[in-house]
Structures
1.
Amino acid sequence: MKDEMMEYYDSVSSSFEEAYFADTIYCEELKSSMLKDLKMIENVLGRVKEGSLLDLGCGTGYWANFYCNSADIDVTGVDLSENMGELFRRSVSGANFIREDIFRFLESFDYKYDYILISFVLSHYDIEDAISILRSAKKRLNPGGHIFITDSSWSPEREQVSRKQFYKRSLSGSVKKLYRTKVELDKIVHDADIEADEAYFGAAFFNYVLR
Ligand SMILES: C[S@@+](CC[C@H](N)C(=O)[O-])C[C@H]1O[C@@H](n2cnc3c(N)ncnc32)[C@H](O)[C@@H]1O
């Protein structure tokens, strides 16, 4: 599955960020929620002014503009896809990039961080793996640190244009995508033994701040 994931993201890397512009969403309610929910995510990430930040499944670094607003943030991105990583390296100057599987990274590196961002990654994983990622990430937090999780919500608006689970396919790979309800997400967070300081669940995207 990880090879398929890597091949999928290697092949879509150059057009990946188009998904954030909502141009291909043919449901007006969902589209306006997307824009509102993306603003919420930007506001939360924009609060990070200093410290160390680990971006797990960092992709192209789309969110880097919102958390890299200060030279006092030490950023490390981890991703399996070389092509996504190449774009991350270019867009986040001064950041470290580690090409690695996030499960292996969380188990084998001892570093701790003030912030850990996991954006649009958990929706590729079944419940048990999502819990495992959160549990391991919590062990990599400095005292007082926070984990930001953000991803796609399952909502009546989403239901108008999508199925709850499906495979995204490119010419050379495929990834599973699982939309989650608030109840499902809260259970994942609870079962990972993590507290939510903030829990925003929009029709398009959710954004939780965990500790
Ligand atoms: C939907 S993209 C999100 C990228 C970025 N976080 C964002 O929000 O724009 C998912 C990313 O997670 C990476 N990814 C998924 N599973 C991974 C794993 N087990 N190890 C490393 N990277 C992974 C993929 O390669 C891809 O770049």
2.
Amino acid sequence: MSEIIVRTSSKDYSIRIQNGLLEQPGRYAARLISGRRVAVISDETVAELYLSPVLKSFYQAGFKTASFAMPAGEAHKNIRTLERVYEALYAAELTRKDLVVALGGGVVGDLAGFAAATYQRGVRLLQMPTSLMAQVDSSVGGKTAIDMPFGKNMVGAFYQPQAVLIDPLALRTLPRERLADGMAEVIKYGCIKDAELFSKIEQQRADLEWMVDRSVRIKAAVVRQDEYDTGERMLLNFGHTLGHAIERATEYTQYTHGEAVAIGMRLACRLGEKLGVTPEAVRPRLTRLLKQWRLPLHVPPVELSRILAAVGADKKHLGDKLNLILLTQIGEAVIRPLTREEYEPLIAEVWTEALAETAADGRTAAAASAGGGSVQ
Ligand SMILES: NC(=O)c1ccc[n+]([C@@H]2O[C@H](COP(=O)([O-])OP(=O)(O)OC[C@H]3O[C@@H](n4cnc5c(N)ncnc54)[C@H](O)[C@@H]3O)[C@@H](O)[C@H]2O)c1
Ligand SMILES: [Zn+2]
């Protein structure tokens, strides 16, 4: 078991990481709120697997329980589902002393978190993340949001929970691709802050509970220093500038977030190499690790102009300059602000090279399937 305290301007709260925690949230909730009601928001997949033990634990701890399961998936992280959640909270007669529990992946965490932030101007929130992405990233840091037709995460709030309860055993039922998706973020933490985490994953000596613990500590420390995402927290964007651009340019249909970040991290290494910041030995190590988790390495055949447009669209929120996150070595990152005149030719060069690599890889794969060589 480990406990990490997150200090923020609005409150301090604890993140507990413990195998088997999904079966005992009731005893912790009793310490967090003075109310007697709990509404558990989940999705249909997670509800089927974990809702019963969670409700049982709250019931045994003396709470009145209610639950709502939304359909699973990003497509439902929208204002219609949010309205149904508000209705469920109203039907459960939840008051500001009571507790909303977000039981599920990042979609449930973001949506139920935003519902808690806004229902009756804010009710208590307990995060119980069940996907690796949610355990190491979305449940920590207090960002909540829903998607709008004009963009992802466009409406939301910073809203810190009363506590986060993480049960690494829940990851046993997570499909392999989803695990790999979250691993991209774990690898990212290794890259920017934790060389030991990186090398233990390389040597396959890290178990999930330990990796979750290390990752959460890094995110919690960064959030503590920069609650509202203006400085240090930018380091968490390593691999995300081009990762987001790839997601956007492929209309969020071709890659999961972690997959796009995996591609983006390799590209960020190339950018760093060109700027003389990242040593050449870094990229091969990263590549081997991403391969180990069967994460994609190559860029999709998307035209440069679409990538630059997507980078530009993302950048609007950040002001004039683009803040590139670059590695000085495994375990250490720096922020390099570049003007448009500086970053456009650089990205152009790297994207063009990466497209050539994609084409070469396609030829190797075709030769291999025709009975020729092997793909390394
Ligand atoms: N708030 C933040 O800081 C932040 C950070 C990163 C990501 N996010 C958001 O998180 C979302 C992505 O999260 P995600 O990858 O967890 O997606 P998700 O919530 O859709 O979960 C992925 C899938 O796994 C299933 N699942 C979850 N836990 C499971 C388990 N233990 N066993 C079996 N199946 C399980 C879900 O039902 C779903 O089908 C995005 O909307 C993204 O914007 C937010
Ligand atoms: Zn991410």
